[in-house]
């Protein structure tokens, strides 16, 4: 049922309303999207360019039926594993999904980590923004905590069957530049499976274990690089007109997850207070507002001034630059500052 009887289909300026959940990998975007869908009678549109492909549910971390909690999901699977899926394909399919959801009087919630595809949807052509008013939510965390959680999550994926799942997709003549084989977790296993196919690992448990350990470490490193790439794109978008992005801090939740003492009840409490609660308040205000615009708010619920908002954006860019090995490029007073790769990292 829609929260507080809010209709998702109408706004004062005639535009339908769409919620967009952004964030780096492993921050809980899909979980938040489901929570909001349950509160506001919504449906989720996936914006992860790898998850649109069939297969590799563990490697690509697709939401399970239990995690989807009965909420309809769109663009999860359906594309052949070997097929290319370009930004133009996503723009077409996501637009159709949003129109379908709105036709049922429900709230479209777009969620995923492929920010370049989101940019193509919103800014690739003027039609989407002319028809829809967007509310942007960004699930973020302290980078050091997120990187620790990424490592733990990769270990969990191995326990859940990552090796066997990728083995089914391994082919000696297949590349890793298209389709689902681009997914982190697939190319990193290449050496392991080639040696296994050649019989070089038969009877050599030490070599097998060493190769697997090296592959898993590479998966973790590449996932952390992906996090940095996603953060760079989000900070760049946040500096552009039309991308008023509300940051939600999931750091305390992830800190509990990577801590030695597990406390699921405390995790649930913090998830609600730090992420779901603030997000729900922003969405409710967005759905009630005539023009679809929502003021930036801090964790204590107070509206931020323009100066405070700009300072927060700049601080986020600096933090991302320091963590991800970037230097800052001054682009002029009218355009702000943007991160770019440091020369040593090119």
TrEMBL record:
Top-level taxonomic group: Eukaryota
Protein EC: 2.5.1.112
Reactions accelerated catalytically: dimethylallyl diphosphate + ADP = N(6)-(dimethylallyl)adenosine 5'-diphosphate + diphosphate; dimethylallyl diphosphate + ATP = N(6)-(dimethylallyl)adenosine 5'-triphosphate + diphosphate
Gene3D superfamilies: Crystal structure of tRNA isopentenylpyrophosphate transferase (bh2366) domain, P-loop containing nucleotide triphosphate hydrolases
Record keyword Transit peptide present: yes
Keyword list, A-Z: ATP-binding, Cytokinin biosynthesis, Nucleotide-binding, Transferase, Transit peptide
PANTHER family associated with the record: ADENYLATE ISOPENTENYLTRANSFERASE 5, CHLOROPLASTIC, TRNA DIMETHYLALLYLTRANSFERASE
Role noted for this protein: Involved in cytokinin biosynthesis. Catalyzes the transfer of an isopentenyl group from dimethylallyl diphosphate (DMAPP) to ATP and ADP.
Family: Belongs to the IPP transferase family.
Name this protein carries in UniProt: adenylate dimethylallyltransferase (ADP/ATP-dependent)
Organism placement in taxonomy: Eukaryota, Viridiplantae, Streptophyta, Embryophyta, Tracheophyta
